[in-house]
């Protein structure tokens, strides 16, 4: 298969891999092509989303297509290298909420559930449902991460945010840190924090109403 051009769609610096989208897909080549850090020429721009690259498609041992000899195209490399210099010092943290913040928020959440239960406003079944929802949320993150690594169909972000809003946000925070997933996209982190805050606000109002 011939060399082609594309743009980096997603890059995970911590894990050392990413995906690119070919500009002109060739027969048999998927819309999203996996590539590893060892196959990226770092003499140009860093491998961040949006960088235009040249690459060579190659079959991987598992039979899937991957990209080797991935290199930033000269004009894009200059633009993104300059932008990288401006943004490196202000790069967002690796997760939406740090371990300490997540622990404090979760303790507060559990306290609210305890108060609601003691006041007779929440049944034991509801508490079990919250536990199950958090387990489901963690599994959903794990499945989405595996899909990302294998280039398969992803879980829509709105589905993950819905689970967070319903009360699965503690497990979502744990998954972001333990699985190193959904940590690099600033817009997603903001939405996660918004879903968590909305859930806590609603639970607080309902508990003390």
TrEMBL record:
Sequence intervals crossing the membrane: 96-116, 122-143, 191-208
Keywords associated with the record: Membrane, Transmembrane, Transmembrane helix
Classification via SUPFAM superfamilies: Nucleic acid-binding proteins
Matches recorded under InterPro entries: DUF1294, NA-bd_OB-fold
Annotated protein name in UniProt: DUF1294 domain-containing protein
Source organism: Luteimonas deserti
């Amino acid at each position: 298969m011939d060399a082609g051009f594309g743009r980096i769609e997603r890059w995970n610096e911590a894990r050392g891999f990413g995906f690119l989208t070919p500009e002109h897909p060739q027969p048999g080549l998927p819309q999203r092509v996996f590539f590893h850090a060892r196959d990226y020429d770092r003499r140009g721009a860093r491998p961040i989303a949006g960088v235009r690259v040249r690459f060579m498609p190659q079959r991987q041992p598992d039979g899937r297509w991957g990209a080797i000899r991935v290199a930033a195209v000269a004009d894009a490399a200059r633009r993104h290298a300059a932008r990288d210099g401006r943004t490196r010092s202000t790069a967002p943290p690796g997760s939406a909420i740090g371990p300490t913040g997540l622990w404090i928020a979760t303790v507060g959440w559990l306290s609210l559930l305890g108060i609601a239960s003691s006041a007779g406003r929440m049944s034991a079944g509801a508490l079990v449902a919250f536990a199950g929802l958090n387990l489901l949320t963690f599994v959903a993150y794990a499945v989405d991460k595996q899909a990302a690594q294998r280039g398969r169909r992803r879980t829509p972000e709105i589905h993950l945010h819905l689970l967070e809003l319903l009360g699965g946000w503690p497990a979502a925070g744990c998954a972001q840190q333990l699985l190193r997933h959904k940590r690099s996209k600033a817009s997603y982190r903001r939405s996660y924090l918004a879903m968590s805050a909305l859930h806590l606000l609603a639970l607080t109002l309902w508990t003390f109403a």
